[in-house]
C-alpha cells in the first residue's frame, strides 16, 4: 500500500479544539475525512504531551550512534585522507553494515565536508623554523614600515591558462557552442615570464623576461626598475626591497649589486609565497588578462601591462594594511602554510 500523507499540524490542532468543544470522535472523523483511529491518537497524544507536534525520536533510529559518530570524526580529524569507503570497510569488520552515504551524512553532521586538498610548497623543518622566526621578528613593525616595502616577484602568464571562469550557464545540447567552450592547445599555446613590483601606494613597473632569466638578467631588471618604481610610488629614502630566495636572487652577483647600491633587503624565509602579497596581485592580473582573451603573445604582454596599471591603489593598500594578520596566521599555523 502507498504511504499515507501525514496529517498537518494545523489539522491536528483543529481536531483537538473540536474535541474540547465537546464534539465526538466520529463526528470529527467525518468532518475532516480522517479515520476515527487517527482522531483518537491525536487527542490522546495531546493529552499526554500538551502538543500536536511529533514526538522527538520517532522514526527509524540511525545506524551510526552518536558515540560511534564521535569516534569516526576523531579518526578522520587525525587522518583527513581517510575515505568514506575505508570507513565503511572498517565498520563492516566490526559487524556494522552501513552504506557510504550513511558515513558521509555522519561526517556532515560533524561539520566535515570533502574538498580537494590545497597545493602548498613542501616545508621542511628548517623552512618552518625560518617562517616562525620571520613572523616573530617582524610583528614588532607597525603599518608604516610595511608601507615602505617594495614587494617583487616573477610569474608565468599563459596564453590559454586555467584562470577562466570554472562554470558557464548553458542549455542542454549546447556544450560545444563556441561561447560555452574554452580553447586549448598543446603546451598551453605559449607563455611569457613577467617580473613586477608593487607597494601600498600602487603597482610599480612590470617587465617581460625574454627567455630563461639568468642572474645577469635579474641584475639588469633591478637596475632599470626598482629605484624608478620606488620613486614613482613615493616610498621616500628609507624603503625596503623584498624578494624571495630564488637562486638567482641570492647569487653573489645580485648581493653585490644590492650592497653597492645601498638597497635595504628584507630577510625572507624560503618556500613562503603565501607571505608575499604580490601573489594576490598576480591572481588578479591573470583573471583580468584572460578575460580579454589574448590571441597571441604580443597581446598577452600588452594586456598584462595595461591591466597591471589599472589595478586600484586601494587594492594594494589593503594587501599591505593587513600584513600583520599574515604573520599572526603563520604563528597560529605553527609555521605551516596559511590561507592567503
Automatic annotation (TrEMBL):
Species for this entry: Astyanax mexicanus
Top-level lineage group: Eukaryota
One GO term of the biological process aspect: DNA transposition
Every Transposase Tc1-like domain range: 69-139
Pfam families: DDE_3 (PF13358), HTH_SB (PF25787), HTH_Tnp_Tc3_2 (PF01498)
Protein name per the record: Tc1-like transposase DDE domain-containing protein
Annotated signal sequence range: none
Domain Tc1-like transposase DDE: 149-300
Molecular function terms, GO-annotated: DNA binding
All copies of domain Sleeping Beauty transposase HTH, residue ranges: 1-53
Amino acid at each position: 500500500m502507498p504511504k499515507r500523507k501525514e496529517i498537518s499540524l494545523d489539522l491536528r490542532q483543529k481536531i483537538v479544539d473540536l474535541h474540547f468543544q465537546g464534539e465526538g470522535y466520529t463526528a470529527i472523523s467525518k468532518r475532516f475525512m480522517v479515520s476515527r483511529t487517527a482522531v483518537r491518537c491525536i487527542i490522546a497524544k495531546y493529552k499526554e504531551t500538551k502538543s500536536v507536534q511529533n514526538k522527538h525520536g520517532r522514526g527509524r533510529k540511525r545506524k551510526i550512534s552518536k558515540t560511534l559518530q564521535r569516534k569516526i570524526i576523531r579518526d578522520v580529524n587525525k587522518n583527513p585522507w581517510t575515505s568514506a569507503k575505508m570507513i565503511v570497510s572498517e565498520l563492516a569488520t566490526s559487524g556494522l553494515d552501513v552504506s557510504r552515504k550513511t558515513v558521509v551524512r555522519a561526517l556532515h553532521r560533524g561539520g566535515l565536508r570533502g574538498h580537494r586538498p590545497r597545493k602548498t610548497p613542501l616545508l621542511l623543518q628548517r623552512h618552518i623554523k625560518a617562517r616562525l622566526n620571520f613572523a616573530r621578528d617582524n610583528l614588532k613593525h607597525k603599518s608604516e614600515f610595511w608601507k615602505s616595502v617594495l614587494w617583487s616577484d616573477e610569474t608565468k602568464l599563459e596564453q590559454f591558462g586555467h584562470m577562466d571562469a570554472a562554470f558557464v550557464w548553458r542549455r542542454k545540447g549546447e556544450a560545444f557552442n563556441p561561447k560555452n567552450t574554452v580553447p586549448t592547445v598543446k603546451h598551453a599555446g605559449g607563455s611569457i615570464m613577467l617580473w613586477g613590483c608593487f607597494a601600498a601606494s600602487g603597482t610599480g613597473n612590470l617587465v617581460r623576461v625574454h627567455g630563461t632569466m639568468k642572474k645577469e638578467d635579474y641584475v639588469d631588471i633591478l637596475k632599470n626598475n626598482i629605484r624608478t618604481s620606488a620613486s614613482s610610488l613615493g616610498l621616500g629614502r628609507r624603503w625596503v626591497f623584498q624578494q624571495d630566495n630564488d637562486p638567482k636572487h641570492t647569487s653573489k652577483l645580485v648581493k653585490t649589486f644590492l650592497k653597492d647600491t645601498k638597497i635595504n633587503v628584507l630577510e625572507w624565509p624560503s618556500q613562503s609565497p603565501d607571505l608575499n602579497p604580490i601573489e594576490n596581485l598576480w591572481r588578479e592580473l591573470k583573471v583580468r588578462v584572460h578575460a580579454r582573451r589574448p590571441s597571441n603573445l604580443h597581446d598577452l604582454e600588452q594586456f598584462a601591462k595595461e591591466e597591471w596599471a589599472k589595478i586600484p591603489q586601494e587594492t594594494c593598500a589593503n594587501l599591505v594594511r593587513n600584513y600583520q594578520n599574515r604573520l599572526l596566521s603563520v604563528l597560529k599555523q605553527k609555521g605551516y602554510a596559511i590561507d592567503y
